[in-house]
Amino acid sequence: MHRKALKESLESCSAAVKLETKKHCLLSRTSFPIPVPTLRKLVRAAGLGCIAEISIGVVPPVPEYTVARLVHRGYAVHGINHEGHGKSSGSKGYLSSFGDVVRDCSDNFKSVCEKQENRLKKRFLYGFSMRGTVVLQLHRKDPLYWDGAVLLAPMCKIRSNPYMYRGNLALQTGRELLSVSLDTEKNLHEVSLPFLVLHGTDDVVADPSGSRLLHERASSRDKTLKLYPGMWHVLMGERPEDVERVFADVISWLEDRVGVSHDDVVLHIDVSHDLEDASSSTVTLTQDLVGIL
């Protein structure tokens, strides 16, 4: 489906809510599955997933398009704009504490997971770039709570890049991002949940060797690494045919773990980011049965 049509259909099945924390007012957004003509059956998602997205400067249409595609596959996504990002309060682009980001995501996602209609659903986390770091920190915070994770170009290891933007990043934000990246790399052996990690071999932002290390060191019994020769950092922003490959791998992995066939799935996606500023948020994926994630 054309991106414009996907965006319009996504806007028609989304709801935004403001959440009050001790420090900030955060925007939460949920997108619900909608009828898809190509699906033989329409079911509700049977699992719940969370996507952590805090990267600064991601091309807005990319996460928006990804969410729309998942919705059209029957998934529901839930997430929040982090402090200082999107329509949440706080100084723009400023993170006072990465721990606060993880805590906000954990509290918000668990409140969704514990709703009566979601208690029997499986729970999956999804993260791109630095959002992958949020996902791994959420797992470390509560190792047995999540059923799996999908990580696209996770920043387990930062690559030196002379062409990377070096503008006015808040010192505290940079300090928090560097600290959590080093901590994540040091503790990869603690990762024990099922996960799929996908990475382009020509990524000049997040070092692909970090994903190799994650796959090698993680104690998970169910772990899959997919490397895409010639692809860069934003896998969902590659050429259409390559995006199809990546998206197919993600869907196949998810469906294998919820035990459903392609034609029997509807994705519920709980989106944490606002579509007008999708660069910094955290998302939860959920599924039911008259649906699935």
Automatic annotation (TrEMBL):
Positions of the Serine aminopeptidase S33 domain: 66-160
Organism: Zea mays
Cellular component terms per the entry's GO annotation: membrane
Source organism, top-level taxon: Eukaryota
Protein name: Serine aminopeptidase S33 domain-containing protein
GO molecular function: lipase activity
PANTHER family: PHOSPHOLIPASE-RELATED (PTHR11614)
Entry-linked Pfam families: Hydrolase_4 (PF12146)
Coiled-coil segments on the chain, per record: none
